[in-house]
Design goal:
The protein is mainly α. The protein has one domain. It is 72% helix and 0% strand. Helix 4 crosses helix 5, helix 4 packs across helix 11 and helix 5 packs across helix 11. The longest helix is centred in the last third of the chain and has 25 residues. The chain is globular, with a radius of gyration of 16 Å.
Length: 194
């Protein structure tokens, strides 16, 4: 899953949310250097990624992209699934998406010192381009995929994946809608366990 889903799955605890958000910037056992709830968020993020990568429904989505994008297909599916979450946000959360995102950006700013350097560098770009809100539209997803392609120096060709998104829009949506309740349940159990 990509940023929006990770935030949503963190629940209402700000420290867990911060941990879940920064997790990709915290390698190996470095998570042990953080306060307990941020640690919990980092571990939650890792559990979400592992569960997602091995779920049979997600594998259907990635298989559809594999021929054209190889090992980048999982990253693309994470982004596409965030599109369906953003577009259908009212079915998942009582707070309107724009307000939810604004609250998250405020949380990021107030926890700037805790963020790893890589995340500190990315944060102003993320906020000024409002990445999270852009997930709700296909052109917004196209912009995100373009940025990802630039980061891979054009190797991923992710910028072309909106073709498959448009061609298989209903199938991806059905797979996300089928998978996400499983992930929510898994995450709730994991949070209790952690």
């Amino acid at each position: 899953m990509n940023f929006l889903a990770h935030l949503y799955l963190s629940g209402d605890d700000d420290s867990i949310t911060i941990g879940n958000f920064i997790a990709d910037g915290v390698k190996g056992k470095k998570y042990l250097e953080y306060p307990s709830k941020i640690k919990k968020g980092i571990l939650l993020h890792r559990a979400i990624d592992s569960y997602t990568d091995h779920h049979p429904t997600v594998r259907l989505s990635t298989a559809r992209l594999h021929k054209n994008y190889g090992h980048y297909s999982g990253v693309i599916v994470d982004i596409l699934y965030d599109h369906y979450l953003a577009k259908n946000w009212v079915h998942y959360h009582a707070t309107p998406l724009e307000e939810y995102i604004d609250n998250f950006y405020k949380l990021l700013r107030s926890n700037y010192d805790v963020l790893p350097a890589r995340i500190q560098k990315m944060m102003p770009i993320m906020i000024s381009n409002n990445w999270l809100l852009s997930y709700a539209t296909v052109p917004g997803i196209g912009n995100i995929l373009n940025q990802m392609n630039v980061r891979t120096r054009g190797k991923s060709r992710m910028n072309l994946a909106t073709v498959e998104l448009n061609e298989h829009y209903a199938e991806f949506k059905e797979e996300f809608t089928s998978f996400f309740p499983d992930l929510i349940k898994h995450t709730e159990n994991k949070l209790k366990e952690l």
